[in-house]
Design a protein that fits this description.
BirA Bifunctional Protein, domain 2, 12 helices, elongated, binds 3,4-dihydroxyphenylalanine
Amino acid sequence: MKTKGKALSNIKDFKLKIEEYKEAFKNASVKVKDEKSLQELRNLYLSRKKGYLRVLFDELKTLKPTDRPKAGQLINGLKNYIQKRLQSLEKRIKVPKRLIREIDLTLPGRNRYWGAPHPVLLFQEEIERIFLAMGFSIEDGPEIETDYYNFEALNFPPHHPARDDWDTLYITDDLLLRTHTSPVQIRVMEKQKPPIRVINPGKVFRKEAPDPTHLPMFFQLEGLVVDKDITFAHLKGTLEFFLRTLFLEKINIRFRPAFFPFTEPSAEVDIECTVCGGKNRECRVCGGEGWIEILGSGMVDPQVLKNVNIDPEQYSGFAFGLGIDRTALFAYEIQDMRYFYENDLRFIRQFAQK
Ligand code: DAH
C-alpha cells in the first residue's frame, strides 16, 4: 500500500487510502480457508491496538478539523464492510456448535415410514402378471360411463329387467358411474380389430350399503379374447390356468351355467373354499357351501360383436369379469372386505412387501 503510514492532511488522499485498504482486504479475504486464517485477517484489520482501522482512526488527527467527520464516516463504512464480510466467511467455515452438540453417533438411526402399495393393488398386480405372461395386454377405460357403453352396447335393452341386477349410481339420465368393467370390452373392440387379448382392471361402483362382502366401490378385472375359432375350451383352459396359478395347483374349480346379457353361453366360476375346503358347515368364509363364486364369464354374444362391427360369422370370443377385492378376500383369508378401506395401518402393513 503506497500511502500507508504517510501522514496526510488531504481528504481526497484519505479517501483513496480507504479504498486501497478495502481492495487489500477483499484480496486477502478470498484466501481465507479456515478458522485460523480468518482470525488472522480479523486481527490485522480490527485489532484494537494495532489493526489497520485503529491506525486510520489515529490518522484522523492529521486532517483539518472540518474534514474529520467525513473521514470518520469513510472509516466506519469500511469497518462495516469488513465486519459483514468476516461474518459471512465465519458462517461458511465454522461447523455450527449446535450440530456438534446434537450429533450422537451412538444413537440408532431414525426409521422413516415411506408407505406401501395397498393390498388390493398388490393383488391386482399379481393377477396382471399371470395374464401378461399369457400374452394379454392391459387396457383402461373411464369410470364415468354412458348408458350406451355400460348397458346398451352390452346387449341390455332399455328397461330390460337384467339391468336391475346392477344397482346403478346415475349422474344424469345418460351418465353413470360404471357398474362393471365390461364397458371396456366395447371400447377396446371399437378401436381394435381381432385378434384381441386384453385385461382391464379398474374401479366400479354400485348403490350398495357396505357389509362384509359388499362395498359401494370395488375393483374388477375384465378380460376379453376375440379371434378366429375361439371356443369355450379356450375360456375354460385360460381361467383354469389363471386360477391354479393364483391359488394352488390342486385347487378345485367348477363352472356353473349362468346368465349375462353380453355372453352366450355364460358361466360363473367357483373355487373350493380356501379356508374349510367344504368341510365346515359353519365356515365364515363360504357360509358352509364349500364353494366361493369369484368370476362371471362366457362366450361373447354375437349381438355384442355386431354392435362393434365385428362379423360374428368370422370371429368369436370369450370374456370374463373378476372381483379383485373379493378374490383377495379369499386369497388372504380375510373375513370382511371393509378392512381394505378403513386405512388402519396395522392391517395394511401386514401386506407390505419386504
Ligand atoms: N360384468 C359382470 C358383473 O359385473 C361380470 C362378467 C360376467 C363379466 C360375464 C364378463 C362376463 O366379461 O363375460 O357382474
